[in-house]
Amino acid sequence: MDVTDIARWQFGITTVYHFLFVPITIGITAIIATMETAWLRTHKEEYLRLTKFFGKLFLINFAIGLVTGIVQEFQFGMNWSDYSRFVGDIFGAPLAVEALLAFFLESTFLGLWIFGWDRLPRKVHAACMWAVHVGTLFSAYMILAANSWMQNPVGLKINPDQGRAELTDFWAVVFNKVQLVTFPHVVLSAYATAGAFVLGVAAYLYVRKATAEADKAVYLKGIRIGAAWLLVAGLGVAISGDIQGKIMTEVQPMKMAAAEGLYETTKSAPFSVLTVGSLDGTNAKNIIEIPGLLSFLATGDFNETVQGINPVEKEYQGKFADNSLTKADSYTPVIPVTYWSFRFMMGLGFFAAARRVADLDHDQEGQAAQGQVVRHDGHLVADRHGAGQLVGLDVHRDGSPTVGGLWLHDHCSWCLSWRERSRSLDWRNRADAPLRHPRRGRVRPVVEVHQGRCGSLQRASQPWCRQV
After folding, report:
1. Among positive and negative, which fits the CA dihedral 277, 282, 283, 287?
2. How do residues 359-400 score in pLDDT, each as one tens digit?
3. Around Cβ 166, how many Cβ atoms within 10 Å?
4. Which residues, in sequence order, are bridge partners of residue 159?
């Protein structure tokens, strides 16, 4: 392993580690801003608690993403010093805008959001998080502009005397056609990643035994919010990714051919789901392939032709090898990395989608039985036709719902009686919110479960359930 390989490994590890935090940071600012806005509009305490909880997790991710990004900036000059000298005039421009404008925007308003609780008006405080999100989008746009320029160099000229590329049109770099499709794809990916993050954290806390029952309704709300963001953004990722693939084929035919291990130009090219043979694909045998799909992904037409690695390599050798600044031994990337990383990524995505569908089916089965639940471990619960809101369900081994250890069958029902001049054990998990009887004022509900007749059950501190 030579020094170039070591530099690649070092930079690659830093980049991957840094990018673990970037999409979460971008996406979760939008989710937190939405949660705080929902709290302002509805005054529901669970939105406020979710805002503060995930706000803390956002700050942790923001700090780690910041320090790993600084290391990456140093590696541009240390690992790739020749590259930085050659393209620094162009590559450094959007990065400078990102650091001087976008980062300062988000960090300034983030400080106001952190220290502005109970100091700023609530609407202004919520607007600060929206400003942070706008700053993250601006920051992402400028960084992606630099990256898109590497995929499709525009707005430059080569100065042979200086031996470097020079910027001639900044706006061409900013509005590069690769950039215009890459930015929405990455941002939607960030929303999906942040949604999965919120969903995963909330789901873990919801099922954890140490979690108090009073907190489960909060985490259930977080699960629903995360799932909604993941679903909507995931659909956007698929659509924008398809468009990006076609733009990539137009400007980087080698990249598409390498990602699919396609060595020869092929009409109506099939998409290889799984192959066996050598890792570089030179002796590959397709086990699973979908006819014409690669042509559709690359061009939008199942019958179109897709260029292969060998013809593109030959074209690049004739086009660039005579110039000392662009001459290379090979213009073909590492095929095993490009081929298998794409399939590994897609496999994880389909696996996650399948799990989500299974979870939805399970949720629907649970909701069908929840109409019979009246109490869940100390908190009053009503069915969907009553005045309360479901917060949980205990299920016996045979699948029948239970309340307080009692079996409830289909013919069981429930009713509420009222206690005057007392506070409610609120079934929405807001202990400070009283339940109001239409004529008698503030009351506490007492649960009665009956089979054919009502039986009374009451205690001074909390409702109980018993079968009569």
Report:
1. positive
2. 655 554 444 434 433 333 333 333 333 333 333 333 333 343
3. 13
4. 164
